[in-house]
Amino acid sequence: MKFEKLSDYKLKITLSNEELPNNNTDLDSFMSDPSSARKSFLDILDKAKDEVGFNVGNNKVRIDAKYQSNGNFIFTVTKLVPKKKAVKKAKPQKVSTNRKNNCLIYSFDNIEHFFNFCFFLKNQKINCLKSFCKITELYKLDNKYYLVFNEINNEYKYIGKLYSGMTEFGTYFSAQEIMFFMLKERGELIIANNAIQTCQKNFK
Question: How does pLDDT run across 160-189, given as a tens digit for each residue?
């Protein structure tokens, strides 16, 4: 059983045939008893909370299942947030404006999370990123990925949506330019300047 937290609202669960609860051998038999399947999923979600910090709380969830050719099952759990909570505006990360060359760095647990962030921006039509900052680079260090924005324009018209999206897919790391230099020295440069646009253009 493998858990992968895609975001605060989405969880990926990989199960083999042998790991299906209650000694079931296929998905149909597992889902044939809704009451038993529901209890089994609640137990699985409890494990996910302990292992990767995915907590559904009192929210309803949607579960999508997919069978793979290697015999594994992929369950995607989506937390459904009530509308009254969904409309709450996320507060963007405040960036100091008293420095000429301000900097912002976010970390991603894996490259897929960075890809998802790039495609989120594309789908939301958050564009003209060159007018947001002069430098956008992606580094890898200690099995994590770091996206660096340097020389930020705090008057960028999509800045609130951009920061909100970064919070959804990544984790705030630093706003200190010295950490950018540390990544340059110790990290591996994955995508040079215009990292987001390069990803959107070359990866579908």
Answer: 888 888 888 889 998 888 888 999 999 999
Question: Hey, what CATH class is 103-202 in?
Answer: alpha beta
Kindly tell me the number of DSSP H helices and DSSP E strands found in the chain.
7, 9
8 A C-beta contact, residue 188 and residue 140:
yes
pLDDT, one tens digit per residue, over 66-117 is: 777 777 778 888 887 665 544 455 555 444 444 444 889 999 999 989 988 8
pTM confidence score: 0.50
- State the first-to-last Cα distance of the chain, in angstroms, to the nearest integer: 28
Single-letter code of the amino acid located at 38: R
CB 138 within 8 A of CB 100: no
Q: Where are the domains of the chain?
A: 2-85, 103-202
Q: How far apart are CA 41 and CA 25, in angstroms?
A: 16
Q: Write the burial class of residue 111 (CB in 10 Å: 0-12 exposed, 13-18 middle, 19+ buried).
A: middle
